[in-house]
Amino acid sequence: MENEKINIVIVDDHPIVIEGLKMMLASQSAFNIPETFTSGSEIIDFVQFNKVDIILLDITLPDANGTDLCREIKKISPDTSVIMFSNRSERSIIMQSIQNGASGYLLKNTSIHELVVCIKGALSGDIVFCHETKQIISRPSQNDVPIPRLTKREKQILQLVAKGKTSNVIAEELFLSPLTVDTHRKNLLQKFQAKNSTELVNQAIQLHMIEE
């Protein structure tokens, strides 16, 4: 067991970040990086058929929100430790990640020494944070916006609202009644605590739930 390498998979939508992490982690003889991915669907497919000890997972991916993805990974592979690795420093996102099963949360300015310590800590069953993240979670902020939990249908409608489409147009595209679409829109406004569609879209963009 002592000679077994620790399999670490990196998931980030920026290839330059992946290459930087690979170079840093390559200096550790105990670490092996069998694969890297730039999308959420790829890592879901991979963990179903491969042993992964650690996943370094970005929050913002082209096809998924990292906090939701973490929850899916833990369902498929409970023994895999997921460490969020992101530029996002909102306390609400950090806490949501841990609630969804993450073993830790590191910011991308973390040093290689701190990264290695945190990886080893996560493998031992600890919840790990970099120094800056520890400071953030020790200072609860009233300004943090919680990440709403959306249904698949609400996510579809949110994307279409962001494109400026009316309820009637959305209803035609999704084969729904306008009344049903309006009900979903009202639910979205409540979940985001938004007063109107503009505020709804702005908040969703800030939370990286839709693209600008």
TrEMBL record:
Boundaries of every Response regulatory domain copy: 7-123
Residues bearing the modification 4-aspartylphosphate: 58
Keyword set, alphabetical order: DNA-binding, Phosphoprotein, Transcription, Transcription regulation
CDD domains for the chain: LuxR_C_like (cd06170), REC_NarL-like (cd17535)
Domain HTH luxR-type: start-end pairs: 143-208
SUPFAM superfamilies according to UniProt: C-terminal effector domain of the bipartite response regulators (SSF46894), CheY-like (SSF52172)
GO biological process: phosphorelay signal transduction system; regulation of DNA-templated transcription
One Pfam match: GerE
GO molecular function, one term: DNA binding
Domain of life per record: Bacteria
InterPro entries, sorted: CheY-like_superfamily (IPR011006), NreC/VraR/RcsB-like_REC (IPR058245), Sig_transdc_resp-reg_C-effctor (IPR016032), Sig_transdc_resp-reg_receiver (IPR001789), Tscrpt_reg_LuxR_C (IPR000792), WalR-like (IPR039420)
Protein name (record): Two component transcriptional regulator, LuxR family
